[in-house]
């Protein structure tokens, strides 16, 4: 067993404990999540069909929010951006320009299918091309459906009185631990959609992430992760 594998197993052990504590895994369509969700923390997404060598679910996306003292975003607000609209005038829609996760998933879908370059160019642009608005909306609905089918866990990591937090430290190091660009030992399956991502760091890291996928990993952060797991209700 490699050194990285010896570190990866405890990480997943802590996530198993976290799942027991919060009644997970969770889905973004579960009722009452907004009331249960911690105000601040991290999230860990899994994906059906993506497994570790031992057959257990593999993490495919890690994220957080509010990394500056002035930010007022919440964990549920960030998860809601990834989930997309659940009602209103655009049920099932979403805004991939406000969610890099959605942007990666949508572009990978288009690239996998070899869909027309005009829609892909519009999807990747700062704003939609006028003749691609309806096509983008249809893709947003497809992306929403995919992300809502992904199990996830949340971890309560509150903001300290001084405005700081350990969210950035935990996000950076857990991504670096799993990323196959940074030495992670557990690659995506051959059929993983992320292999078609436009961003090379997604396909190369085996994660729907681009930040921190080639960072160094600090093993001591696993102890910090464990401490937050055991204070998450």
Q: What's the arrangement of secondary structure elements?
A:
Blueprint: H1 3-22, H2 33-36, E1 41-51, E2 57-63, H3 75-83, H4 100-113, H5 117-124, H6 133-148, E3 152-156, H7 167-178, H8 200-205, H9 221-229
Antiparallel strand pairs: 1-2, 1-3
Helix pairs in contact: 1-9, 4-5, 7-9
Please provide a written account of the structure.
The chain has 233 residues and is mainly alpha-helical. 42% of the residues lie in helices and 10% in strands. The protein contains nine helices and three strands, in the order ααββααααβααα.
Q: Please give the order of strands in the largest beta sheet.
A: 2-1-3
Series of secondary-structure elements, N-terminal to C-terminal: HHEEHHHHEHHH
Helix content: 40-55%
In what range is the share of β-strand residues? 5-15%
Mean pLDDT: 94
Distance between the termini: 33 Å
* Secondary structure: number of strands: 3
Number of DSSP helices? 9
CA-based shape: globular
Give the class from helix and strand content and strand pairing.
Answer: mainly alpha
- Taken together, the total number of domains comes to 1
Q: Largest sheet, if any?
A: 3 strands, antiparallel
Q: Radius of gyration, Cα only, in angstroms?
A: 18 Å
- Low-confidence stretches are none
């Amino acid at each position: 067993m490699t050194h990285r594998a010896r570190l990866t197993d405890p990480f997943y052990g802590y996530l198993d404990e976290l799942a027991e504590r919060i009644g997970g895994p969770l889905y973004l369509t579960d009722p009452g999540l907004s009331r249960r969700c911690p105000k601040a923390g991290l999230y860990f997404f899994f994906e059906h069909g993506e497994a570790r060598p031992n057959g257990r679910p593999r993490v495919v996306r890690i994220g957080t929010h509010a990394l500056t003292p002035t930010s007022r975003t919440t964990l549920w607000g960030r998860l809601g951006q990834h989930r997309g609209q659940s009602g209103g005038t655009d049920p099932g829609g979403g805004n991939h320009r406000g969610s890099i996760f959605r942007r990666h998933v949508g572009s990978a879908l288009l690239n996998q299918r070899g869909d027309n370059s005009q829609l892909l160019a519009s999807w990747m642009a700062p704003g939609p091309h006028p003749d691609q608005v309806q096509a983008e909306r249809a893709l947003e609905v497809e992306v929403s459906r995919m992300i809502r089918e992904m199990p996830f866990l949340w971890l309560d990591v509150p903001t300290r009185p001084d405005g700081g937090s350990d969210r950035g430290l935990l996000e950076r190091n857990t991504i670096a631990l799993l990323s196959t660009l940074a030495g992670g030992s557990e690659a995506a399956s051959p059929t993983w959609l992320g292999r078609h991502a436009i961003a090379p760091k997604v396909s190369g890291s085996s994660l729907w992430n681009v930040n921190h996928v080639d960072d160094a990993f600090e093993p001591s952060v696993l102890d910090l992760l464990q401490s937050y797991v055991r204070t998450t209700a």
